[in-house]
Amino acid sequence: MKNLLTRTLTGIACVGLICVGIMWHSLSFFVVFATATILCLWEFYHLINARKRTKINAYHNCFGGFLLFSVTYLYASGLFDYRIFFIYLIYIVIIPVSELYEKQQDPINHAAYIFLGQTYIALPFALLNMIAFRGIAGETPVYDPLMILSLFVFLWINDTGAYLVGMVTGKHYLFERISPKKSWEGFAGGLVFTIISACVFARFQPEITLYHWTGLSLSVVVFGTWGDLTESLMKRTLDVKDSGCSLPGHGGYLDRFDSLLLAVYAMLFYVQLFILQN
């Protein structure tokens, strides 16, 4: 009971912080998610270092993730053109060159894990900016908090719905080898609840049709589930239960954002290919 209360209070605090960050201002969005990028990368690189095969400098490479998020924000908001990415490319070039001087026992492994953190964690967070800012070619992009909020609401409702339905009716494993607690019944339940929430968003933003809101929710659920399973696979490989212990009752920051890391691609592709083309 105490653990459930702790988990609930932590969850409410996290949801509240994310919602305020998204809805208040584009700068609060930047602060919240740039910080989340750093925290998730910090956990990831420390998990890798715990295997004693590499010695990644978490400070330098968390800054790399922050740099990617920052330049993408500046580009997506219309403050700079594509050349702002050259700053991050300097960091990318430094990684293999630095291996000449690091004297690591396994330089290929070392560099590969650094790049994995950037592509697996930093890149999805950076792409949130491409969803948050929308605009017509030739005009300054406008910050759209409702669209980015819908991504997180879909993930939260799917996670809660899948847990509740799976706990009551779950009998058929979704992916027993990776996550034995997930069931097809839970997946279906989460999907139904998420589609219902999409109908609510259609009322608040009718310029996007209910058909497309439903398509968005479906793509987010599928890719969000894959994102959750991918992180579970990583934790099994590293032989850890949670990515960290920073969030009481929830594990680490990476545990809370795992579904987002693939779902952001699904929403970005859907928005760019179907919604903005109409």
Written description of the protein model:
It is a single chain. The longest helix has 29 residues, at 210-238. This protein has one domain (2-275). Helix 2 packs antiparallel against helix 3 and helix 6 crosses helix 8 (210-238). A hairpin with a 7-residue loop joins strand 1 and strand 2. Helix content is 74%, strand content 4%. It has helices spanning 2-24, 26-49, 58-76, 86-102, 107-132, 145-169, 184-204, 210-238, 253-257, 260-275, and strands spanning 133-134, 142-143, 173-175, 179-183. The protein is mainly alpha-helical. The chain has 10 helices and 4 strands, in the order αααααββαββαααα. It has a two-stranded antiparallel sheet with strand order 1-2. A two-stranded antiparallel ribbon has the order 3-4.
Helical proportion, percent range:
over 70%
Alpha carbon gap, first and last residue = 50 Å
Number of domains: 1
For the largest sheet, list the strands in their spatial order.
1-2
- Mean pLDDT rating: 89
Overall shape = globular
What is the radius of gyration? 19 Å
- Strand-pairing-aware structural class: mainly alpha
Order of helices and strands: HHHHHEEHEEHHHH
Biggest sheet architecture: 2 strands, antiparallel
Alpha plus pi helix count:
10
Quaternary assembly? single chain
* Strand residue content: under 5%
Low-confidence segments, given as residue ranges, are: none
* Total beta-strand segments: 4
